[in-house]
């Protein structure tokens, strides 16, 4: 999760975008890495996958 | 060739990468987009390291609320153009280099002119729309872009080498919503320092660059992490054949 916390979820082939919405995360504010690699929110994830949700920062 | 004063000034770097390396830095012209929190750290360390020519561009004036993080500017500079205080600070740190500080807005019309003669682009902007312009300009000119961004205790950085690595648009297909961001000077210090280290390595041709990787700094949990990125074959900025062709045509028209 963007705040550094972890969650376990029972999932089977769910679109990442739907996972984000179920967690109350706005997909335009984050990028998601699946098993260490950035993927599109169109991709699906299952129980065995590790997702990292990174909040995009834009300041300078 | 380095003069005697330069040999002394850069003695510790010459121990690290030799006079050859130092001369490579001296021959480099860098474009620093912004003289805010990141731009301060980036330009100060680049000036100190001896990048031969630094062009820094910012349209704003110094405000009191900038001073917690924008270490290019001091209390006496409040109300002055950031470009002016930046010029004084950088030239004061290192009179051996050329500092070209410009009061100006970075937009589609001005960017081509502003980038004339520059070999590297340092992203020190505070918004994604301008970053996408820098990304496209870097791709068109085939020069590297060193991305950095911060928010509060958090920061991210990556290095973009046109034609080789994922571009900014591959990693961030769309801009996050604009919002006023909290900022801590030391976070700018972490991320700006990573960007400068990358630029030094690029010029020297040494080490492993931060390409195809997004480095993530979480200062609140003292955690440095990274995620892998891949070039998106449908990226509209770096992988669109039509775009590349029109850009080439455009370049040809320009040079002819
Ligand atoms: Zn791309």
Describe the protein in words.
The complex is a heterodimer of chains A (60) and B (256). By secondary structure, chain A is of the alpha+beta class. Chain A has a single domain (14-55), classed as Ubiquitin-like (UB roll) (Roll), CATH 3.10.20. Chain A is 12% helix and 28% strand. Chain A contains 1 helix and 5 strands. In chain A, the strands form 2 sheets. Chain A has a 3-stranded antiparallel sheet with strand order 3-2-5, with no helix packed on it. A two-stranded antiparallel ribbon of chain A has the order 1-4. Chain A is globular. The mean pLDDT of chain A is 93. Chain B is an alpha/beta fold. Chain B has a single domain, classed as 3-Layer(aba) Sandwich (Rossmann fold), CATH 3.40.50.720. Chain B is 42% helix and 18% strand. Chain B has 9 helices and 8 strands. Chain B has helices at residues 4-9, 11-26, 37-49, 82-93, 108-114, 128-141, 168-171, 185-204, 241-255; strands at residues 29-33, 53-58, 98-103, 120-123, 145-151, 154-160, 213-218, 223-228. Chain B has an 8-stranded mixed sheet, sandwiched between helices. In chain B, helix 3 (37-49) runs parallel beside helix 4 (82-93) and helix 3 packs across helix 8 (185-204). The two termini of chain B are 34 Å apart. The structure holds zinc ion (ZN). Zinc ion (ZN) binds at residues 166-167, 169-170, 232, 235, 237-239 of chain B.
């Amino acid at each position: 999760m963007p705040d550094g916390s972890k969650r376990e979820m029972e999932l089977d082939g769910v679109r990442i975008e739907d996972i984000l919405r179920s967690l109350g995360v706005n997909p335009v504010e984050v990028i998601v890495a699946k098993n260490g690699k950035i993927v599109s929110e169109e991709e699906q994830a299952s129980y065995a996958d590790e997702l990292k949700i990174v909040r995009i920062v834009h300041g300078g | 060739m380095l003069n005697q004063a330069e040999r002394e000034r850069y003695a510790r770097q010459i121990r690290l990468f030799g006079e050859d390396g130092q001369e490579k830095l001296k021959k480099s012209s860098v474009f620093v987009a912004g003289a805010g929190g990141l731009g301060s750290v980036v330009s100060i360390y680049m000036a100190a390291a001896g990048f031969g020519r630094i062009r820094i561009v910012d349209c704003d004036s110094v405000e009191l609320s900038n001073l917690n993080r924008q270490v290019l500017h001091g209390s006496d500079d409040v109300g002055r153009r950031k470009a002016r205080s930046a010029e004084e600070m950088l030239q004061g740190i290192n009179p051996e280099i050329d500092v070209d500080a410009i009061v100006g807005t970075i937009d589609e019309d001005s960017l081509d002119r502003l980038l004339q003669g520059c070999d590297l682009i340092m992203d020190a902007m505070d918004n994604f729309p301008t970053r996408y312009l820098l990304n496209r300009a870097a791709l068109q000119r085939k020069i590297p872009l060193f991305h950095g961004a911060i928010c509060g205790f958090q920061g991210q950085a990556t290095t973009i080498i046109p034609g080789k690595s994922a571009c900014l648009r591959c990693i961030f297909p769309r801009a996050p919503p604009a919002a006023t961001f909290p900022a801590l000077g030391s976070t700018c210090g972490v991320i700006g320092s990573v960007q400068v280290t990358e630029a030094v390595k690029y010029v020297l041709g040494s080490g492993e660059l931060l390409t195809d990787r997004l480095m993530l700094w979480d200062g609140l949990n003292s955690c440095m992490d990274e995620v892998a990125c891949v070039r998106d074959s449908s990226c509209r900025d770096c992988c669109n054949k039509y775009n590349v062709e029109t850009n080439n045509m455009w370049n040809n028209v320009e040079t002819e």
